[in-house]
Amino acid sequence: MIRIAAVGDLHYGEGSKEILRPGLQHLQDRADLLLLAGDLTRCGGPDEVKILADELRGLPVPVVAVLGNHDYHADREDEVRRVLEDAQVRVLEGEAVTIDIDGARVGIAGTKGFGGGFRGAHGSDFGEPEMKAFVGHTKMLSDRLERALTDLDADLRIALLHYSPIEATLEGERLEIYAFLGSYLLAEAVDNAGADLVLHGHAHHGVEKGRTPAGIPVRNVAQPVIRHAYNIYTLDPDRQALAAAAGGIS
Amino acid sequence: MTEPRPDYLPEAIREKLIHDPRVAEQDLRVEVQAHRVMLGGNVASPQLKQRITEVAKELLPDYEVVNETTVVPAAEPDDEEPVS
Hints:
- The complex is a heterodimer.
- Chain A is an alpha/beta fold.
- Chain A has helices at about 25-30, 45-55, 75-85, 130-150, 185-195, 225, 235-245; strands spanning about 1-5, 35, 65, 90, 95-100, 105-110, 155-160, 195-200, 210, 215-220, 230-235.
- Chain A has one domain (about 1-245): 4-Layer Sandwich (Purple Acid Phosphatase, chain A, domain 2), CATH 3.60.21.10.
- Chain A contains 7 helices and 11 strands.
- In chain A, the strands form 2 sheets. Chain A has a 6-stranded mixed beta sheet. In chain A, strands 4-3-2-1-11 form a 5-stranded mixed beta sheet.
- In chain A, strand 2 (about 35), helix 2 and strand 3 (about 65) form a beta-alpha-beta unit.
- The termini of chain B are far apart.
- Chain B has a 3-stranded mixed beta sheet with strand order 1-2-4, with helices on one face. A two-stranded parallel ribbon of chain B has the order 3-5.
- By secondary structure, chain B is α/β, with parallel strands linked by helices.
- Classes of the chains: A alpha/beta, B alpha/beta.
């Protein structure tokens, strides 16, 4: 059984030191992998992410992350990424990584994702250049996610996002802001490529559990939602391999 | 800048709390009644809760600030969820 620890929206900044670290003390006994679903900083400052990186450095399990909208605010996302990578955190944007855990290949494809809305009410890349840029960004990231997931050669495949791929995990958020919380294009990418689990953050007032239209489990791991240092999800790589061999996703 | 009309004051406070780098929170609830500002939502630490009060008081020194935000716990989870 592969144990995935996941959390998003840590929003580290001045005064955040040691918020997470006490909760990570027994991580090695609880999980095989830690996934971070974006918004690791308050304003996207390299000094902010350094506080978190110092708490993640030397953790006994692999750590994989995507960035979130807050991590782009200072226009220094490349530096944020470098600080994390210096602490051995693998950062994904339209990319994938495969990690061997006790002989099982666990593949993670990650992207920040972006907004647009959901089926029947999604924005279109039509009209003003600003609108084309907004929806075009979501389309580009969704396409990259689908390619990264499709190209993964792994026993288990996980999509790691910041923005939500479905409406169900947004329940509790105001309907007016759904278009800024996620996009169905992300779910379509996952459903086209196939995956065993989708993780996202960003929706602080949402709920934890949902599924894509094709039935793939989705978990909103925004810290204000899970209210723990992380949540743990277990996946059976043998069961997934059997399901794939039988021609379906369980 | 023109001081916001009372009807628009909650949004002015919300914008300040989003853009002030000491806070940068997009999910806070802001209500204004008479000369009292009420703030709600989730925050990551007691320090951040304190900063929110400070920023609101700087913006509106003549208002009472009632900060009812909740510090979200970050302990280890009690159990795990079998997904498959």
